[in-house]
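Holo prediction — 2-phosphoglycolic acid.
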Amino acid sequence: MTARTKIVAGNWKMNKTVAEAISLVEQLKKDLAAFSGGEVVLCPPFTALASVAKLLPTSPRIQLGAQNLHPAAQGAFTGEISATMLREAGCRFVIVGHSERRRYFGETDAFLREKLLAAVAAGLRPIFCVGEELPDRESGRWPIHLRSQLQGALHGLPVEVLSEIILAYEPVWAIGTGRNATPEQAQEAHALLRKEMEILHGASIASPLRIQYGGSVTPQNARALLIQPDVDGLLVGGASLNAESFTSILLSVE
Ligand code: PGA
């Protein structure tokens, strides 16, 4: 089995002014001074990226990510931000296909595929999110849904793109609801995703692929999720907005 470095990302969503972002990152830097448990990625809103980038040392302990990008290089796309702009702002990562983007902004698998290509071409590592809604979980159809999301966005992508992707399993029913997937449910879904990636793209992509779990992660449930063999990290929303809870989640990686 390939050893996979754990990677924990904080998705701040549409939260934090620049001043609030700076104060949170300053606290995290203090709290995580001795942290060596894996990679940490902070994904503030666009407006705070440049200020947060200035606070982060060039060391890879805490890295910067964006929450979204537009696939075009530039042009008449009012309100959008390109991969090159994100790189310039100091980002190394970008979240692609979060369920809130799919649900509220109608993002399709085909569009997400374009985003993945654009992100990697500009030197960003995509955190690509998949996850089923509650009816698919309850009817047992969730594996079909996950397979279709993987195939829809990743089919035919070159190895150079696939090898940069970090996958995030985020069951929609667990996001912001306080109802996390159990460690067993997470492990089962992650194992299925890895198996499907192996079938689609081969073991050389599937075995080193890091798969994060996201959905109501807290300091209380982080460790039980992280010790599952196919859970290689976490994508944390609400609990990443507070230095104490995010630090305590990170410490459970060690
Ligand atoms: P949550 O969000 O931790 O607040 O459930 C996770 C996410 O949406 O990435």
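READOUT: The chain has twelve helices and eight strands.
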